[in-house]
Every structure is written in structure tokens, then in C-alpha cells.
Amino acid sequence: MYAEKFELLEAKIRETAMLVSRLREEKQQLEWENEHLRARVAELESHIQGVAGAEPPYEPEIDHLLEQLDTLQQDADMPPRSTASPLGVAPTPSVVQSSPSRTQPESPLEPPPRALTLLEEHVQRGMLHEHAGEYEPAISAYQRALEVDGENLDVAQRLAFLLEKLNRDVEAAAVWDKIWAIRGAQTSPRRRRLR
What we know:
Elements: H1 2-54, H2 62-77, H3 118-131, H4 135-148, H5 153-165, H6 169-186, H7 189-194
Helix pairs in contact: 2-3, 3-4, 4-5, 5-6
């Protein structure tokens, strides 16, 4: 009886030893594959960095756009040079074009570029400053736009959100009050009675 148990025990020990041996081999194989995968990942990362370094990311020329807006603002602040042309026709306002080299429409079907209004100039200047992270000039541009059109909800909301972003809650609250007053005035008299 004891001899049979010893034989079974020896057989189980041999099986366990073989399993341990196989597990060690599999572990070595996995470690080898892991090393090769790590090397491949490092190779791919260096390739990605090389590709990313070859082409600089696109960045809009915000400084150039801001210079153009400043020039337009200075032109708008200056009085016109003459009130009449030699032909008796009033001079046309300056036109903002999409690109400096473009002076004529490309096709007869394309409408000519139109002049920006003073409100649009202030709003665009504010958006450019805000996008560039220059918040104080953006706030003053939005405030100038509201001086031109005090009931423009889009501009008022941009200003309120920007003030909140800068934790200037008291100023933002005043702008929000103005926004709600404008919205209340724009609702129809029938809707106001229902409330």
C-alpha cells in the first residue's frame, strides 16, 4: 500500500517538475517577445517624433491679423481726406480683403468683398485677442462693440463668458443683467403677459 502511494507521489512530482519546466520555458519566450515588442515600440515612437519634427504644426498668423486690424482701426479713427472726388462722387470706404494679393474677384459670379462695419471690426479684434490669450484687449474690444450696438446679444455673451473665465464675477453679473434685460425687451408682449 505504501509502495503504491510512493509511486503515485513520485509520478505527481515528475509531472509537477515537467509543468514547472514548461512554465519556465514559456516565461522565457514571453520575456523575449516582450523585449522585441518594446524595441519595436521605441522604434515607432522615434519614427513618429521624426515625422512630427519634420513638419511644424500649422499656426495661424495671429500677430499679422492683429496688425491689420490695428491699421484698420487707425484708418477708421482718422477723418476722411476729402469729402468729394473730382467727379463729384463720394469716396468709397476701405475694403478688408481675404488675402493681401487679391484685389479683384476671381470670377464674375463672385461678389466683391464688402467693408466691415465698425461693430464687426471690434468683434473680430476681440475674438482674435481672445484666441491669442490676450484677454484685456479682447474685453475692451467687446466693450467698444457694445458701445456701437448695445443690444447685440452675441457680443454681450462673449464679454460675459470672458469675464467669468477671468473670475471677474461682479463685472460679468452686470453684463448678464443687461443680457436678460435685452432678452426681456425682445419677447413679445403676449408672452410677457403669460409669465
